[in-house]
Amino acid sequence: MYQFSRAIYRELAGEILEEPVLSGTEAALGNHERVLRACEAAIYRLATDRHYFARPTKTLFNDIRIFFPMASQRRVYCVVDRYVTFAREFLASQPLNGYDLEGNRLECRATTRRGTACQRVPLPHNGYCPSHQHLAETEEMVLAA
Ligand SMILES: [Zn+2]
Predict the structure, then answer these.
(1) pLDDT band at 79 (very low <50, low <70, confident <90, very high)
(2) What is the pLDDT of residues 27-59, one digit of tens each?
(3) Residue 1: other Cβ atoms inside 10 A
């Protein structure tokens, strides 16, 4: 999974500002390290919690944009968006084995009529089990509205 965060970092490393952007203890890590860690955190979240990670491209871009000059902003956004899209396609294509890439058990996102969490194995593209697919459709209509 970290192939994606490393790829983002590699493509953008040459454009990272050399002067410290942050001050005090926040500057201790250095700009390069901060960018790499932000990329890894975003990809980790995509791998483990992607159905609740609403705008991964925007989130990661906002986290790292201050480490790049004005002239690079557009390119940074495009690179982030490209690899976030790759990562999402990769995750959506993973076989249904009931576990995420970190080995955590996956469970359907729905709540049953008794108010407990549905524990069936979800489908990879939307996180709901086969009997709760109608909830994914409702969600899409809400998002499209
Ligand atoms: Zn379910």
Answers:
(1) very high
(2) 778 999 999 999 999 999 998 888 888 899 999
(3) 16
The alpha carbon of 9 and the centre of ligand 1 are apart by a number of angstroms equal to 37
pTM: 0.72
CA distance 43 to 90: 12
Contact partners, residue 124, CB within 8 Å, separation at least 6: 91, 92, 93, 94, 95, 96
CA of 109 relative to ligand 1 center, distance in Å: 7
R_g (Cα) of the chain, nearest Å: 18
Distance 92 CA to ligand 1 centre (A): 18
CA of 29 from ligand 1 middle (Å) equals 43
Give the model's pLDDT for residue 1: 75
| 110 CA distance to ligand 1 middle (Å) | 5
* Distance from Cα 129 to the centre of ligand 1, integer Å: 4
